[in-house]
């Protein structure tokens, strides 16, 4: 909590002004009934018009001062709460950008989105309320009781019974409600998650005719949310009339007892009116305070969630020995008995993997699904750290490069191409800061996508929807390859990124890549692609079974022969 609210520090002055205005409003609220009593006692009861005008003018002046103070307070309260929300969203975004893959695995995307929207808004609203009325409400309760005692202690005695009773009741309501709000929040997260998965997987849902199934899943999440919200608000709604009932009882008591004292000449009508007025203000402040505290308990839960993410230790940072000047020169890669398990998982997905790729060499990696190919790739740009063993680039441990230097020299095309909303040119140029149009066009030509782009309505300026919905799978793959090529990386890594390309296009693309002097690692399922590489690495169950040329592997590895036969037919391997 404290960490999150420390974001208010830059706005200390605004907060001070807001609280000063609150104090003025408070004074106005407490003095008005007092002066009303005076006006009735000295003016109305004595039919003294001059006195009425005098007290009336003072009251109007006070009310106007309160009104102006309220407007100024509102301005500073909203400015502070909006600025706070802006700052915290910016800091949160920055923090999440610094997350490693292992950190990201800890938090579902939907939860992170909820942080940015729901949680930040919840705290923002509470800060606004806090500056606007939160401190005023309890002070009105205390001040109202004190003033009532100043006006008439005998009548004010009722406050000593009702106020503690109401406060105790409200504390109980809050305790129960905050647990209920926790459940509401969990259900909000759940609805967000289902929605997000559905929007991202809409095509798959339609293709698999799973619309009804998904609708039912959403209905279930949505009705859970509606039910918990309904239960929570019903509870609060039923507690409010109880509150009002106790308040009204105390008012009736004041009127009845005040009347009998007035008839006996022991108090004045003005005092009774003033005390009734204080009772009304105290009751309103108490019920207002309930809502504020309820908002506060929700904001507390939101602040805790935000704080948890803000405090996450990023587990992948530059090594103490990393040198910013170290730059990848040739792109020679060496794995030395590298083992790897995903964080918080015991299973080894890579087991003592050793191999070397020379600078400028092309290595194809093949293996069954789940054999650890992508995991191996992710270790090279240090998206994860190895569990055991070392990786060297140009004979230096990868930890001796800063993350920035290391990743700057790598062009990584992931298995699922992800394009951003924007134009084609933006998407390719995204791969390199300040890329020129010529560089974009050259990268597109190398990735064999230039001709396709030129056929689009606005060519390079054509906009693509989020995730490039209006492009085919193969086109998306080639755009994300162009994005990697524009970096002119020393190490190029393609994770099954040519799977949707026909053989001729793929071979032209690989030829273009060969023109560049870069080390290329290609994960592929296609033997035809693997054959064109200098060497092939065969993986199975996280181990390297064999490394060599196509012919060497045909001789050495039964598994490789079987894969070749499954794609080219038995005659092929017999002939070779
Ligand atoms: N984020 C993760 N957390 C835990 N385990 C994971 C994670 N990602 C992958 N794995 C596991 O690691 C193993 C290797 O997965 P990997 O994606 O490296 O295989 P792959 O050979 O690239 O498969 P494919 O050809 O299907 O892409 C699998 O058993 C998988 O379940």
UniProtKB/TrEMBL annotation:
Its main location: membrane. Keywords: ATP-binding, Membrane, Nucleotide-binding, Transmembrane, Transmembrane helix. GO terms for molecular function: ATP binding. The keyword Ubl conjugation does not apply. Residues 333-566 form the ABC transporter domain. It is a multi-pass membrane protein. The chain crosses the membrane at residues 12-32, 52-76, 133-151, 157-177, 240-258, 278-296. Residues 21-298 form the ABC transmembrane type-1 domain. This is ABC transporter ATP-binding protein. It comes from Virgibacillus kekensis. It is found in: Cell membrane. It holds the Pfam family ABC_tran.
